[in-house]
Amino acid sequence: MKPLFEKIIVAEGASYGLLYRLLPEGIPFECHYHPEFESTSTLNSRGP
Question: Is the dihedral of CA 27, 21, 16, 31 positive or negative?
Answer without folding.
Answer: positive
